[in-house]
Amino acid sequence: MLVRKAFLAVLSVFALALLPADLFGQEVMARDAEAPDRAALIENALSAAPETIAAGAAVADWEGNVLREGTNDYTCLPDDPNLPGNSPMCLDSTWMTWADAWMNQTEPPTPDAIAFGYMLQGDFPTSNTDPYAMEPTDDNEWIEDAGPHIMALVPDALMLEGISTDHENGGPWIMWRDTPYAHVMIPAAARK
Predict the structure, then answer these.
(1) 150: left (phi > 0), else alpha (psi -120 to 50), else beta?
(2) How many domains does the chain have?
(3) Would you place residue 65 in the very low, low, confident or very high pLDDT band (cuts 50, 70, 90)?
(4) Domain range holding 74?
C-alpha cells in the first residue's frame, strides 16, 4: 500500500510539473522559496540521477510543490518521509506513464524507445515477482534494497529474453517478469 501511495504521489507531481508555473500562483512559489529545507530537498532529489540528467531535471516534493523547474524530460523526487527505506528517484515521462498504469492496474503503453529511470541512492523494499506485494512472503522474492540502480523499459518484450530474474546475480535482472510491468533493473554499484 505504501509503495502504491508513493507512485500516486509521483504521478501527481509529474502532472503538476507539466503545468505552466504561473498556474501555481506567485504566493505558492514565494512560500516554497522561503522553505528552510528547500535546498536540502533539491539536493536529495537530484542525488537519484547522474549529474548529466540531474542538471536539467525538474524537482518536486511529495506534496506536489515544484521546487525547481526543469529543462529535460526528467522529474526528480526526494526521499518520501512517509515511506521508511524509500529513496529519491528521477523518472522520465515514459516512466511516469508506466507508473500511472501500474498504480491504476491497467496495461501500460509500449514505449517507443528504451526509457530510463534512476534510483542511485537505492530502493524501497519491494517484491521481485509481484508488483502489488506489500510485504515479504515465502514466494515473492522480497528485496529490502536493490541498491543503486538504473531502470529500463523496452519497446519490445523480446528484448527481455535471456536476461535473468535473479536479483542477486551481480548484473542486470528483470523485475516483475510475466507481468505487464516487467522492466530491467541495472545495478549501478556492487550490492552489499
Answers:
(1) beta
(2) 1
(3) confident
(4) 1-192
